[in-house]
Amino acid sequence: MIEVERSWEDLTDWQRSLREQFPIITAHPDLAYLDSAATSQKPRAVLEAVREYLVGGNANAGRGTYPWANATTAMVERARERVKAFLGDPEPGRSSVHFVSGTTEGLRRIALDWLTELLDDGDEIVAPFADHQANLSPWLEARDALARRGVGVRVVEMPRQAGSGDYDTEALAGVVGPRTRFVALTHVHHVYGGDMNVHRVREAVGPDAVVCLDAAQSVGHLPVSVAELDVDFVVFSGHKALALPGTGAVWARRARGPRFSPSGWDGTPNTVGIASLATALDWLDAAGLERIDRWCAGLAARLTEGLLELAAFEVLGCQLSLAGDSPVQRRASIVAFRHERIDSGDLGFVLYSHGFMVRSDSHCQAGAEPGDGSVRVSLHVYNTVEEVDGLLAVLREL
Ligand code: PMP
Q1: Mean pLDDT of 38-58
Q2: Is 380 a pocket residue for ligand 1 (Cβ < 6 Å)?
Q3: Same structural domain, 274 and 328
Q4: Is the CB of 384 under 6 A from ligand 1?
Q5: What CATH number does residue 376 fall under?
Q6: Distance (Å, rounded) from C-alpha 198 to C-alpha 201?
Q7: What's the structural domain count of the chain?
Q8: Residue with the nearest Cα to atom 7 of ligand 1?
Q9: pLDDT tens-digit readout, 78-105
Q10: Is 364 helix (H, G, I), strand (E, B) or coil?
């Protein structure tokens, strides 16, 4: 195998020093948390930022004029700039950041507050029919809302390659046409774990279509650069990127279509969540996204390779986890698999009896049928080679 495996040797000390910064991980040495795609654990810096904010000067944002209120307003504005910098925004003066409760809310707000204003009768949306439900339902809702106003819009399926689950950008070029106004994509698939090669999509859809990226499984795991990807929206969940639950953001560039300004009265923002998010992004940048990516891809590669040696298991999605500059789809931090006879739910119970926390169901995948369950192992920087090897040892015994 591949470069990523060798990368463990030089990252081991670095990883150990980061793992020690997660109190929930060090407090439970007999447990292995392998469900970070659902939500991540929080480093001490984030826990301290939360405490500091709540003890040092908790107030509402954008309302009062006393020091705690002013400081909170300034903190929220700084956090917006922090998100832009984190996403490598080359023109922060031309973009905006809106805090939301997570990817689900962010995508729905784009669909219902913005997309419905963009589209005209006969326009088309391209959407991923086998990604997370949160990245399909909003576009269908927008279509239905427009239909009630007498505006007919079509939602077209994003073509996929059989097997890997990756998008088929060659077929995409045949699907898009002059009426394609909006393309919804996922950066890293939440079941197959593949990087969906979204950097190839702009060329296929042309310069005018708006591209919206669900980055729930990439932000916090690998460098995400809006300039390189040439996308118009990036939506992510802070709680999957080491911040508190109830946090997330929509980054919107004003290059194609109207300004994104969600309608209605926003109410009080999740100030403590936003404080946690800004600190989480600082922590991730200091740790180094490139190294986090290398570590998690390395663990995922080891797990994939181990599973491929066990005849009773089927690994979903791409079978290899190649290095980043490969033209072949690479696996990020997620590996989903099933056993030929043992139900995935039962497998989840067996694994927890050995201390491994995994997710076993159909993972909110759009279009999933009742029999489509799998066990999903999802990794973050606090996970170790020993945890992956321990999990494989249990699976080998089955
Ligand atoms: N998109 C993807 C790819 C996801 O993995 C998830 C969470 N599993 C979501 C969207 C929804 O995120 P949230 O529940 O934080 O809104």
Answers
A1: 98
A2: no
A3: no
A4: no
A5: 3.90.1150.10
A6: 5
A7: 2
A8: 38
A9: 999 999 999 999 999 999 999 999 999 9
A10: coil
